[in-house]
Design a protein that fits this description.
The chain is of the alpha+beta class and 265 residues long. It has helices spanning 50-59, 64-73, 124-134, 139-152, 191-216, 220-233, 238-249, 254-264; strands at residues 2-8, 15-21, 31-34, 38-44, 81-87, 92-96, 103-109, 112-119, 162-168, 181-185. The chain is built from eight helices and ten strands.
């Protein structure tokens, strides 16, 4: 009982999924993403098996539509299921069983499929695709915009309790579990706001990690630039302030570095 989007960014090749629902811990069951392979959302009367099985089919070379057809044909509970799949080429497909509850449906376009059930009104999957297509930023920003678009259009008829967002690199990877972002908000009163906050923190730590790596490799100017960005994104985070301060202190900016370190220790 949820709404979700699976999508691919045609410029970067990133693949991901985002979901929100009135139940807790939705990120543990609905979104399935693999770099260079695709993304699957399995929901309604959720058959969790359809997530990894869908990725198996995409990895074997099936298109999104072929994967949906194969999964639905093999599932005796198909009338209560809902699926959305996008593959690494941006082909998308969806399925909504005839026994899904409430206003339920899906909408597909190049690079994205949106789906939902127990919705406030039937047109919400289309509103999600519109919000995704109109949004600026990288894939994570656009996935979050799609969830916001659904919420603004009425969203889940019961209100929201949890949300999740997953984004992975688009190219083939030797590490199928690799993720750029894998974020879950399991039980709060405003999960989309909290998901946006957590995404901001994740971006700050992404910048911190790249900055520290650059500094270790002797690219000090680049390292300082990235840790500065991390600190600007999360100025109240003590660990980010600490490491940014250390980098400043050890690279000729003792006053600024000491000031940050005094504030964190």
């Amino acid at each position: 009982m949820t709404y979700s989007i699976v999508a691919r960014d045609p410029d970067s090749g990133e693949i991901g999924a985002a979901v929100a629902t009135g139940w807790p811990a939705v990120g543990a069951v609905v979104p399935w993403v693999e770099p260079g392979v695709g993304a699957v959302a399995t929901q309604a009367s959720t058959n969790v098996d359809l997530g990894p099985l869908g990725l198996d089919l995409l990895r074997a070379g099936r298109s999104a539509a072929e994967a949906v057809e194969s999964l639905v044909d093999a599932d005796d509970g198909r009338d209560r299921r809902q699926l959305g799949i996008v593959d690494a080429r941006g082909r998308s497909a969806g399925f909504t069983g005839s026994a899904c509850v409430g206003a339920a449906g899906h909408a597909c376009a190049a690079d994205a499929s949106a789906q939902g059930n127990v919705l406030a009104r039937p047109g919400i999957p289309g509103a999600m695709l519109d919000a995704f297509g109109a949004a600026a930023g990288d894939l994570a920003d656009r996935l979050l915009a799609a969830l916001r678009g659904a919420d603004a259009d009425g969203g889940d008829a019961r209100g929201l309790h949890s949300a999740a967002l997953v984004a992975a690199a688009g190219g083939p990877s030797e590490r199928p579990w690799a993720r750029r972002f894998d974020l879950r908000v399991d039980a709060v009163s405003s999960p989309l706001d909290e998901l946006a906050r957590v995404l901001g923190v994740a971006r700050a730590y992404e910048a911190l990690g790249s900055g520290l790596q650059a500094a270790r490799e002797g690219r000090v100017e680049e390292g300082l630039r990235d840790t500065t960005l991390a600190y600007e994104r999360a100025p109240d985070d003590g660990q980010i302030a600490l490491w940014h301060g250390v980098l400043l202190l050890t690279n000729g900016q003792e006053g600024a570095g000491r000031s940050l370190l005094v504030g964190t220790l």
